[in-house]
Design a protein that fits this description.
CATH superfamily: Ribonuclease Z/Hydroxyacylglutathione hydrolase-like
Structural class: alpha/beta
Radius of gyration: 17 Å
Largest sheet: 7 strands, mixed
Length: 261
């Protein structure tokens, strides 16, 4: 089977401060099913002056990532944003064992059935009575969040209020994954028939009818009432930037883009 993620993450990862000294992204190449170039991204946030980093959707923990984290502060939280994005939870927890691990319903059970490292979850968001679930006063003072339990992948979506930044995994794609493949020698984020087909659906340009139809007919079909309730809550947040796992960061106009899709 073709590789999903790179064997040399240190050589191809793009580490970028999208909000200087507050939010840093870790962008890497990632091939869905081993063939489709969708990219992957982790996000580290640190609200000054707390000096306590929040790692959302972690990626490979390279030496450069460790140095970046060390410069940002103490890791207090490690978050998996859905039941699919948890590949590097084990190494991050091993390196930062005092950090609270946060994830969605179903992920602890999924990991328990798999041959992966054991990770203790401090906060698990449930489908039932999810509004009663909180992280802690420190985290909640900086972030708004919603568990989109109606999404097939059980999505956790976060909004860093001070920087007006929405951080999400599979709720919204912004292909092609230009930044995420920018350090891969000879790679083109748009090459390959399967990649082009994926990008034709999962982009945010213009009316983005492909992604809108995909969300309507596939993503939300199982529980449209629950999905719409979550989307209405997110739509009420004040954000300008969107940091997706797959594809390029939407630096401005994020809320208008979100509403259009």
């Amino acid at each position: 089977m073709p590789a999903l993620s790179p064997s040399n993450p240190a050589e191809v990862m793009v580490i970028r401060q999208i909000v200087p000294r507050v939010i840093t992204t870790l962008s890497v190449p990632f091939w869905r099913f081993g063939y489709v170039k969708v990219g992957g991204r982790g996000t580290i946030g640190i609200p000054p002056p707390l000096r306590r980093a929040r790692s959302l959707l972690p990626v490979a923990l390279t030496d450069e990532v460790k140095r970046t984290v060390s410069e940002m502060g103490t890791v207090k939280y490690i978050t998996a944003l859905d039941i699919e994005h948890h590949m590097f939870l084990g190494p991050w927890h091993k390196e930062y064992p005092d950090a609270k691990v946060i994830g969605p319903e179903g992920l602890p059970e999924k990991r328990a059935k798999s041959n992966v490292e054991k990770v203790p979850f401090a906060v698990v968001f449930p489908s039932q009575n999810k509004e009663a679930t909180t992280v802690d006063p420190d985290f909640d003072s900086e972030f708004s969040y919603e568990f989109v339990s109606a999404h097939a992948n059980k999505e956790l979506v976060f909004c860093h209020r001070p920087t007006r930044t929405l951080i999400e995994a599979d709720l919204l794609f912004n292909l092609p994954a230009t930044e995420q493949f920018s350090r891969v020698p000879g790679a083109d984020a748009t090459s390959g028939i399967l990649t082009r087909l994926m990008a034709a659906v999962n982009h945010t340009r213009g009316e983005a009818m492909g992604q809108r139809r995909f969300i309507w007919w596939a993503i939300s079909a199982g529980d449209r009432a629950g999905f719409n309730k979550s989307i209405a809550k997110i739509n009420g947040w004040d954000f300008e930037r969107i940091v997706p796992c797959h594809g390029d960061v939407i630096e401005s106009g994020g809320r208008a883009c979100f509403r259009r899709l």
